[in-house]
Design goal:
The complex is a heterodimer. In chain A, 67% of the residues lie in helices and 1% in strands. Chain A is mainly alpha-helical. The longest helix of chain B is centred in the first third of the chain and has 21 residues, at 3-23. Classes of the chains: A mainly alpha, B alpha+beta.
């Protein structure tokens, strides 16, 4: 007796119905499965919607401020002060009150979102790029390479990051920043490096192909372009730096957001690198890597074509969880007076300015604090949701 | 527990937190009756003997050594434990009274010799224990010219003494111009007829006596270690051991003042009611410290004023615990007259005209913290009334100062006049130059707020600014006090009295000859030959109506050159606990510990 679905049943000896088999056994793609699981997580969806709204608000902040009729974020006014210079709170003509310089808190909260998101996304991107590359190299190559990179990570993890931040902020916030760069020299170095790399790759390819002549895997021949193109990109970068950028700039770490982004990226890459290293250590032992190696695939091919796609899920999850950490870090640095220079609005600097008058001007700290809280919470919830959606076993 | 209920719980907790926070916030019940006390013209009350007072301060004294101390908090302690030749009673900061001196200084007809007689019966504290002589004062004045005892004003105020070294000397120089014909007579001979200025400066701490036979061994070291071994002549002393080492001073932590057993009340005008004074340092949060004082017992503030929100509370709910002291100082926003476009007087006048000085004052607490300034000699200093007093004259040449909220029309007028001089200005009177002008402000409130308001004022006229905030000491030592740093605008500068004489306000701040490569106090770098000559001519006049008038005229002339935007003649707010009968020192603008008592 059959227990299958009627459309799957067939009389013995009869041919199956045209098209029905293919439709019946079509499997869902990983993306579909991911999206299906994510849709079931209502909290994560709400958090995602909040983030989307936040991004829209940050991008369209000037328009929203204009539409609502609020004053620009840096416009000072003594109209809303009493005789002692104390600011007034939320009312009809000022949605969220004014700060201690008479600036509209609503406008500044909106514009502050730009700073927070800009720092979070750029710093996170830098952390991901640096951390993933170093983590993959350390995990794949093992030996002295792994030892050197892992110890570097240990040193960085043990580094008192806040002290570094305070020191860099103090040094690089004065005048025109620090670490002045002579771009002419940098451009020359990059060009020479690219040419040497290109030459070395070409020599290896030619020698390798001659040895494997006749038995050469056609794949290896196509690797000419795969090998040369990256060096070509580096060469172009070098030419841009040499010919287009100014010969000398005041400093690559200039006062304001660059200091904050540098500090966050400098402090954050070891965390990502450690996680990626761990992932790569387990994946490199898998059979498909062994198979690729035995077929003669190069290390870079194995790393970027075989290993990296298998660690995308944890990268995405960790990146999403890194963003709120970096938002909080930026707020902390701004609170300490490093980073964004006045009058730029930043949630952290707004909270710092509000601490002295919190008991008489509660709105000044509450609203940027609330914005920070909701943003960080939303990213955390999205990260949780992504983790569950990408790897359902962890939620059981 | 699965994730979703956990998340809901988190969200609920968040909502509760928001509601709690929003519900917080004080509603002050303001007591609007009566007005806040001012120390100007105060009567010194009779106090009760005994008790222990605690002074809350954020930082430490700069020095205990009278040869090196310079800052207000150091003076608060210094003038309680030591006596200078002359000093000020708390109710009169204009006329000093003899302290160690027995009478007013006698000035020769050629204004080059000062003769002073000192009292008998004034003794050093243990372990020195002997009566002071004029040789101790001579040594005190000579040691500050040594490289081992860096004094910030010796050369400036006493450099005209015959034989005074021009640069810090090795060892303690023997200055021929300071003579001691007997133990009670001190004669000071000058190279220039500047006896009036030098005599006025004899209130400074460097005239506090130092016993050479005790101090020489400390002063032989570089830097001198006398700072940790000071001996005292005042009603109080810092606790010390048998060798003289100050055991009662734990730097950055506390200072214990006890009664000086060798102090003779009959030689001193100070009553010294308190038995002990404990200085509690490290109270960095001014808001917390101020609230402790207002709500606590037997507490007074040391350094630093209460922040504006606490000042408001004090002025509305704790009126009897707040006193305002005319600070004898002027705050201003300096424009560097050596940097374009501030080398043009019309541009500077336009800046002064557009400036909202009310907004600047509100950053510090509003009208309660002082009067709007329009010149540089502050109230209480000779020459203030002669130069026009509190109100801007109706004379049209002062039109750019008339409106303290800023006058765009007058500003435009001066900018268009500057356009005639070749300054790039748009048709509507805004600056058209593209360069970014460097502006350095302090990172400490309320100065940081004042700097931001100042930035806003400059931007109204179209200036592009490179605005940076730095620490307070870096502001002076690396930027505004260093002409080479090429800072175009210094919004957080000001000058407060060292002693009661108009020259001390005008000479170091606006005389072109006073511009220094480091520690410069002529922040606008004004170098006008006519002004320089006028200052030099006025400096040799004897104290009195003629001198006051001369400096008043110079003050007005400088104002008309608009090298800065003067915006506040300070009143320093002092707060005390309700069981303290505080007496404000109008000279140092701190509580006078030798007159304060407990109720």
């Amino acid at each position: 007796m059959s227990t299958g679905a009627p459309e799957l049943l067939q009389e013995a000896g009869s041919a199956p119905a045209a098209g029905s088999e293919a439709a019946a056994i079509a499997a869902r793609s990983p993306v579909q499965l991911f999206w299906r699981r994510l849709k079931q997580d209502r909290v994560a969806l709400v958090a995602l919607a909040f983030i989307v709204v936040l991004i829209v608000v940050a991008v369209f902040a000037p328009l929203i401020v204009k539409l609502v009729g609020a004053r620009p974020p840096n416009e000072q006014s003594t109209r809303f002060f009493d005789e002692f210079g104390s600011p007034s709170g939320p009312s009809g003509d000022k949605l969220l009150g004014v700060d201690d310089l008479g600036r509209d808190v609503f406008s500044r909260v909106l514009y502050g979102a730009r700073v927070s998101l800009e720092v979070a996304f750029i710093a996170t991107a830098l952390i991901v790029v640096i951390g993933v590359v170093i983590g993959m190299v350390a995990g794949y190559y093992r030996g002295w390479v792994d030892t050197a990179l892992s110890r570097s990570m240990d040193v960085m993890l043990a580094f008192p990051v806040l002290l570094l931040a305070l020191g860099l902020g103090g040094a690089c916030s004065l005048g025109n920043g620090c670490i002045p760069v002579n771009y002419n020299r940098v451009g020359v170095v990059i060009i020479i490096f690219a040419l040497l790399g290109m030459a070395f790759s070409l020599v290896r390819l030619i020698v390798g192909n001659r040895r494997a002549k006749g038995d050469a895997d056609p794949l290896e021949r196509r690797d000419y372009t795969a090998r040369i193109i990256p060096w070509g990109v580096v060469l172009v970068i070098g030419l841009v730096v040499e010919l287009i950028l100014p010969a000398r700039t005041p400093g690559i770490i200039t006062p304001g957001l660059p200091v904050v982004i540098f500090v966050i990226a400098f402090a954050g890459w070891p965390y990502m690198a450690r996680i990626i290293r761990g992932q790569v250590l387990s994946i490199r032992e898998k059979e498909f890597v062994e198979a690729a190696r035995s077929l003669g695939a190069s290390d870079s091919r194995i790393l970027f074509r075989h290993i990296l796609p298998n660690i995308v899920a944890p990268i995405i999850v960790y990146t999403t969880l890194l963003i709120p950490t970096n938002i909080l870090f930026e707020a902390a640095l701004s609170f300490l007076g490093i980073g964004v220079q006045p009058p730029t609005a930043s949630w952290g600097s707004m909270i710092a300015d509000a601490t002295g008058i919190f008991d008489t001007a509660w709105w000044f700290m509450t609203f940027p604090g609330l914005a920070l809280l909701l943003t960080v919470l939303s990213f955390n919830l999205i990260g949780d949701g992504l983790q569950d959606a990408l790897n359902p076993r962890t939620s059981q | 527990m699965t994730r979703t209920p956990k998340r809901v719980a988190m969200l609920a907790a968040l909502l509760a937190l928001v509601l709690f926070v929003a519900a917080c916030g004080s509603s002050s019940s303001d007591d609007k009756g009566g007005s806040v006390k001012s120390s100007a013209g105060q009567k010194i009350p009779q106090g009760k003997q005994g008790g222990e007072l605690t002074v809350l301060s954020a930082g430490d004294v700069d020095y205990m050594d009278p040869g090196q101390m310079y800052y207000t908090f150091g003076y608060m302690i210094g003038y309680s434990v030591n006596r200078a030749l002359y000093s000020f009673k708390p109710d009169n900061a204009e006329k000093p009274v003899p302290d160690i001196a027995a009478s007013d200084p006698q000035i020769s007809a050629d204004k080059k010799t000062i003769t002073i007689k000192i009292k008998q019966g004034i003794k050093f504290s243990p372990p020195v224990n002997r009566e002071i002589t004029t040789k101790d004062i001579k040594y005190a004045m000579e040691r500050v010219f040594s490289a081992n005892v860096p004094n910030p004003y010796a050369t400036g105020y006493f450099g005209t003494i015959q034989g005074a070294p021009k640069a810090p000397a090795k060892g303690i120089p023997d200055i021929s111009g300071i003579q001691t014909p007997d133990d009670q007579t001190l004669v000071i001979k000058l190279t220039q007829p500047k006896a009036a200025t030098v005599a006025a400066a004899l209130v400074m701490p460097l005239t506090m006596p130092v016993p050479p036979e005790y101090a020489k061994k400390f002063d032989a070291k570089n830097p001198s270690t006398y700072n940790q071994n000071v001996v005292f002549t005042g009603p109080y002393m810092v606790k010390n051991d048998a060798s003289g080492k100050l055991t009662g001073w734990k730097p950055a932590k506390s200072i214990e003042l006890v009664r000086n057993p060798n102090w003779d009340k009959s030689t001193d005008y100070r009553p010294a009611y308190l038995d002990k004074i404990h200085i509690d340092e490290g109270n960095a949060d001014a808001t917390v410290a101020s609230r402790r004082i207002l709500n606590g017992s037997a507490l007074v503030q040391g350094d630093g004023a209460p922040p504006a929100p606490v000042l408001k509370q004090a002025a509305t709910r704790f009126k009897n615990q707040l006193v305002l002291v005319p600070a004898g100082g002027t705050r201003y926003v300096a424009m560097n007259t050596k940097i374009k476009p501030f080398d043009n007087v019309n541009v500077r006048k336009a800046v002064v005209a557009i400036f909202d000085r009310n907004a600047m004052r509100l950053t510090r607490g509003g009208p309660i913290v002082g009067d709007l300034a329009w010149r540089y000699i502050p109230p209480g200093i000779p020459g203030f009334d002669e130069a026009g007093g509190l109100n801007v004259p109706d004379d049209p040449k002062f039109d750019f100062l008339k409106n303290p909220a800023g006058d765009p029309a007058v500003a435009k007028k001066y900018m268009l006049a500057a356009k005639q001089d070749g300054v790039p200005v748009t048709a509507d009177g805004k600056y058209a130059g593209k360069e970014k002008l460097l502006m350095i402000g302090t990172n400490a409130d309320p100065g940081k707020k004042s700097a931001q308001v100042a930035e806003n004022q400059f931007e109204k006229l179209g200036f592009n600014l490179n605005f940076r905030i730095v620490t307070q000491d870096a502001l002076y030592t690396k930027f505004c006090g260093v002409p080479k740093a090429n800072v175009a605008i210094c919004p957080n500068v000001g000058f407060f009295k060292d002693f009661v004489d108009p020259e001390s306000f005008i000479n170091p701040t606006f005389n072109g000859e006073a511009i220094l490569p480091a520690n410069n106090t002529n922040w606008p770098q004004l170098d006008d030959k006519a002004i320089n000559k006028a200052i030099d001519d006025a400096a040799i006049l004897a104290p009195g109506a003629e001198r006051s008038k001369a400096f008043a005229k110079i003050d007005q002339d400088i104002t008309l050159l608009a090298p800065a935007v003067p915006w506040l003649w300070d009143k320093t707010p002092l707060i005390e606990s309700k069981d303290v009968q505080g007496v404000a020192d109008n000279y140092s603008t701190v509580w006078h510990l030798s007159f304060t008592s407990l109720k």
